[in-house]
Design goal:
The protein has 542 residues and is α+β, with helices and mostly antiparallel strands. The protein is built from 19 helices and 17 strands. The protein folds into three domains: 71 residues, no CATH class; 218 residues, 2-Layer Sandwich (D-amino Acid Aminotransferase, Chain A, domain 1), CATH 3.30.470.20; 169 residues, no CATH class. Strands 12, 13, 14, 15, 16 and 17 form a six-stranded antiparallel beta sheet that branches. A four-stranded parallel beta sheet has the order 2-1-3-4. Helix 8 crosses helix 10, helix 8 crosses helix 11 and helix 10 runs parallel beside helix 12. The chain is elongated, with a radius of gyration of 26 Å. The two termini are 34 Å apart. About 13% of the residues have low confidence. Pfam families: TTL. It is found in: Cytoplasm, Cytoskeleton, Flagellum axoneme. InterPro entries: TTL/TTLL_fam, TTLL_monoglycylase.
Length: 542
């Protein structure tokens, strides 16, 4: 009669405990675990088998411990409501819920068709449409991304890779060669004539790389010409859409890229003129005005290849070679190509590290309505560290993928700074203290938080028309951000059903808190609009 029957599917002992404390009665389903496993299919079964045995045992123990019922009272109450429809459902996946249970006034913790922004290819596609929906440029907060299964986007990626290589060559010539005049020496006149400079390019090398003969100014001249043409297109893109792409010029791109690889990754020397040095400076300055990602993209042209519908870092590869990406793309199955399942995204090379280690931010938010769009931002979040020191010379997963599910397989490197937390987790408060020690005390509230809020709202608005709206539903999401050298946040992905399994002392507390405050927000606030909602704040309501 009080409509206080709930159902929980999945490992959520905190939710079960909090609802029981509110006087709710659970309607238990028999063999929920087996039903969920059957629903997820053979592929997810394999993933479950691959999980570390101790992790699964710990999860089961935590569930059982919270579900202790010495008197059998909860089992009795559950039996009495076995034929009643639950009024509140908290589940891992909406698809795992019997749709007959979803009555109009029942509350469930998922919306339908959220893959428009919670899968990598969905977010990539939705944000491409953002400029038509909002006056916002996704390139200011989302590293540019392409779906390799779509031929038009694969061609656009090839062009982007080439243009990025040309810009990167200018940066290498300018930053690594031209600015190190103390190491520069005049070449003999017999080499290329007076006025030519030869500089050792001090940049990452592979251990097996061998320096070849120096690359003379023609290579820099080609890069300058390509970038000039691209700048012309950027400056007049609304006036003359028929301007040919600079990548369709007479340059032999295969040869250009091979020589760029030699400079960027194999230690080859560059030769350039004083005039070219000034041209590089001016051209990069003008390009920066047109390209919001010019700074963060670095100069090694690293890209990250991701399965578009996976999570927890599965299948992710970093690469610096165009041919490697295309070879991997050709190796995908026909079905995957048709749906554009795989994406390639520009790697953020110039990022903020802590104690020489890469990290990312897991930021929670809740959507309680799509019509009107209503978004609540959680003021607490946490950082996830890699196990090995950050390096652009080495692209191992232990250095570049911050996911807990990835890093748990790696031992901490002996080269790791001892100040990195052993459990590889920090709270946002610890991060704020670190920023204050660096003299950037205002960066969190003035740059990072506003940037994360704006990115989340833009992502939601770009996908709003595709989500399956349902009154009474809500959903808790986990957005992942990288932080640039300038403290600007870069959105990587948004996760539906973010993990609530604690991996550290910090996440044990924060995950419990966000579950508690979510129930306050979606249940308690209905009856008492002035009740505490913890760390949630309303950041948008249409």
């Amino acid at each position: 009669q009080e409509k206080k029957i709930f159902m929980v599917q999945g490992p959520y002992p905190i939710i079960r405990h909090l609802l029981r404390a509110r006087g709710w009665v659970e309607r238990k389903l028999p063999s929920v675990g087996r039903q969920l496993e059957q629903h997820r299919g053979d592929q997810n079964k394999q993933r479950l088998k691959m999980r570390p045995r101790n992790g699964a045992e710990e999860e089961e123990k935590e569930e059982e411990q919270c579900d202790e019922d010495p008197s059998g009272m909860h089992d009795l109450m559950s039996y009495l409501v076995r034929n009643q429809l639950p009024n509140f459902i908290w589940t891992n996946f909406l698809e795992a819920t019997d749709h007959e249970l979803l009555q109009q006034d029942h509350v469930v913790n998922h919306y339908a068709r959220v893959d428009a922004f919670t899968t990598k290819e969905g977010l990539c596609l939705s944000l491409q449409k953002l400029p038509w929906i909002e006056q916002a440029d996704p390139n200011t907060f989302f590293p540019r991304c392409y779906r390799l299964g779509t031929m038009d986007e694969q061609e656009a990626f090839i062009e982007d890779f080439r243009l990025t290589a040309a810009r990167s060559l200018l940066k290498l010539a300018l930053e690594e060669a031209g600015d190190r005049m103390v190491r520069t020496k005049q070449l003999p006149n017999s080499a290329k004539g007076a006025g030519w400079y030869r500089s050792l390019v001090s940049h990452p090398k592979h251990s097996t790389a061998q320096e070849g003969p120096p690359l003379y100014p023609e290579l820099v001249e080609e890069a300058l010409e390509v970038c000039k043409q691209h700048l012309g297109v950027l400056q007049h893109q609304d006036i003359d859409r028929g301007t040919p792409s600079p990548c369709r010029t007479c340059i032999d791109w295969d040869r250009f890229l091979q020589e760029y690889y030699r400079v960027a990754h194999e230690g080859a020397e560059l030769v350039l003129t004083r005039q070219q040095r000034k041209q590089c400076q001016n051209l990069l300055r003008l390009l920066k005005e047109q390209l919001p990602q010019l700074g963060m993209e670095g100069k090694l042209n690293i890209w990250i290849l991701k399965p578009g519908a996976e999570s927890q870092g599965r299948g992710i590869v970093c690469t610096t070679r165009l041919e490697e990406v295309l070879q991997l793309a050709r190796g995908f199955t026909a079905t995957s190509v048709q749906v554009g399942r795989w994406v390639v995204q520009k790697y953020v090379e110039r990022l903020l590290t802590i104690f020489g280690t890469k990290f990312d931010i897991r930021q929670w938010f809740v959507v309680t309505d799509w019509k009107p769009l209503t978004v609540w931002f959680y003021r607490d979040c946490y950082l996830r560290f890699c196990s090995w020191p950050f390096s652009l010379c080495h692209l191992e997963r232990a250095r570049h993928l911050c996911n807990v599910s990835v890093q748990k397989w790696y031992k901490t490197s002996p080269d790791q700074d001892p100040r990195v937390p052993p459990d590889k987790i920090w709270s946002n408060k610890q991060f704020q203290e670190y920023l204050a020690q660096r003299g950037q005390a205002d960066a969190w509230h003035q740059v990072l938080v506003p940037g994360m809020k704006a990115a989340i709202l833009n992502a939601l608005r770009s996908a709003q028309d595709q989500v399956g709206f349902r009154k009474g539903s809500f959903e808790l999401y986990g957005a992942d951000f990288l932080v640039g050298e300038d403290c600007q946040p870069w959105l990587l992905e948004i996760n539906s059903c973010p993990t609530m399994r604690p991996s550290s002392t910090v996440t044990r507390q924060l995950c419990a808190n966000v579950q508690r405050d979510t129930l306050r927000l979606v249940l308690d606030r209905k009856k008492n609009p002035t009740c505490s909602i913890g760390a949630f704040e309303l950041i948008y309501k249409e």
